[in-house]
Amino acid sequence: xxxxxxxxxxxxxxxxxxxxxxxxxxxxxxxxxxxxxxxxxxxxxxxxxxxxxxxxxxxxxxxxxxxxxxxxxxxxxxxxxxxxxxxxxxxxxxxxxxxxxxxxxxxxxxxxxxxxxxxxxxxxxxxxxxxxxxxxxxxxxxxxxxxxxxxxxxxxxxxxxxxxxxxxxxxxxxxxxxxxxxxxxxxxxxxxxxxxxxxxxxxxxxxxxxxxxxxxxxxxxxxxxxxxxxxxxxxxxxxxxxxxxxxxxxxxxxxxxxxxxxxxxxxxxxxxxxxxxxxxxxxxxxxxxxxxxxxxxxxxxxxxxxxxxxxxxxxxxxxxxxxxxxxxxxxxxxxxxxxxxxxxxxxxxxxxxxxxxxxxxxxxxxxx
Length: 368
What we know:
Helix content: 25-40%
Radius of gyration: 24 Å
Order of helices and strands: HHHHHHHHEEEHEHEHHH
């Protein structure tokens, strides 16, 4: 029997990039939907659940996962055939990409960065190897190869010495015991203030929220729980009740057999009281590595929750906020397979906190 299809382990850089795409992209685009598929699969979500989340056929989901395992993030941009024959060879294209990514000063030009005009001029006048192409063709070529003009950014590496061991264990339990595997995380902080969002309104007359307000209600956290096998979401909205939420997960499987809870590597999630309770009740706490919470499957479920309960809202107090959160949660669980729900979920996706790392994760063998 073939193993279930699953995306290989993400590197921190890949997790960060996917997070940017789903947060800032247009959620009806093919690129964002493919990013959703890859993130959900890498965190252990089964293919049928992913297909329901993005409203796609299961074979489409598998094709995207296989493509990502082969070529990485280039799988986000489908390369449909068509058009006139190529005028630039593959060697020339690789040379252009390498030149664009090199520092101009290393190639004898007195700049700290390339512009399209300067890069095209260098390629056409370089005595070692000349390549002639227009500025727009050069821009399109770089775009096809995933090269864009962007600001520099800072990056961090995961300093967790047990990173590989933790990721291996999460992959093992989500693959071998999906019906006994759960995910937990804090959603928040939730404050009482106007939250911008989107909605239908007359043209040039959008709905408006107050710009002046006072935060006098403090903050709360939604302690979210997600069952991978049942595709159900629930939680507790209180100031600090991590143990209460974990007990509700144990109650979801009252047979006394072991269960596995994936949660972030926070001090509040591994207090002596929580560890003692977990040992007594056969609950294994599978901690994600530091700065790699993209490995937590519940992160993929918080996007729709934020979009439909926090965005475009102005709650008067935490009581009303809690009521609406639980109303949406019940509606989501009751309509998890409804086409309208699936279409709404794919517009807003995970809020994943992953940090950049230079090394790549081990590639996963491709399943049939």
